[in-house]
Amino acid sequence: MTRFPLRALTVVFALALLATVAGCSSGTPAPTPDPLFNNKWEFAGYQVDVDRLTVFARVFGASKVSALLGEDILPNKTSGSEKAAGLREFIFEKPVPGRYNLNLSDDSGNAYIQYVWVPAATVSDLAASEKITLKPGEGFRVKSADSVVLFTGVLGESRCPVGVTCVRAGQVDLMMTAFKKGVPAVETMFHVANGVSSDELVTTFTVTVHSVSPEPRSGEKPDFSQYEIVVSAAGG
Asked: Rounded to whole angstroms, how far apart are CA atoms 232 and 48?
């Protein structure tokens, strides 16, 4: 079981996403180099609260940073001064639930691109003894933790294809994202190998992945849209 500090989590998974995205089946757009390495600014996470999506950027000096959702959705509000270092907030009012291509950029041509998710207003409440089947973008609510969890990505697929004899069974690497009012989204990676369930601590509760389908076949891997996973949650 793996647990990450909240601040480190955003950077860890942002960097992991950059490193694995070229071959992943989730279709995540390939980002340009992270401006963090230029000591100018960095993506600092995002937060979903009822009727707004807030994107955070941590700026280390005077820099004009802008945000765009999809191809043409501009923020309704922006906080922070372009003349000073600090945390910038880009607020998008009443976003439609779903997956968005987020593009952060500055006036020097540096850019950071990744997907962000907005959960649906209504999802299934999951009791401790229950299992639920999720398709991409679907989720469940853990009432005891007042959190919603979505199935948001497949970052790697190396399982042995059906009908092929392999030296190693391989594994599939999944991403789930937890949302709680007033708290930045928390992304957690799950490694599922040999059909063995993967248990991970997501904020204050444990999520277990019991199965992943479909299995890959020789010469092809499932697209992210084709995956289904069976999960359960406990604690909180």
From this structure: 23
Helix (H) or strand (E) holding 150: strand 147-157
Q: Give 33's pLDDT tier (boundaries 50, 70, 90).
A: low
How many CB atoms lie under 10 A from the CB of residue 165?
Answer: 6
- Cα dist from 27 to 17, 149, 213, 220, whole Å: 12, 20, 18, 15
Q: What does the pLDDT look like over 181-202, one tens digit per residue?
A: 999 999 999 999 877 788 898 8
Sign of the CA dihedral running 4, 151, 195, 128? positive
Residue 4 has pLDDT above 80, yes or no: no
Q: Which residue has the tokens 């092809």?
A: 220
Rounded distance between C-alpha atoms, residue 113 and residue 35, angstroms: 11
Q: With helix as H, strand as E and coil as C, how does 115-143 read?
A: EEEECCCCCEECCCCCCEEECCCCEEEEH
Chain centroid, CA 162 distance in Å: 28
Q: Coil, helix or strand for 102?
A: strand
> Please, what are the domains in the chain?
31-118 (2.60.40), 124-235 (2.60.98)
Check residue 91 and give its pLDDT: 97
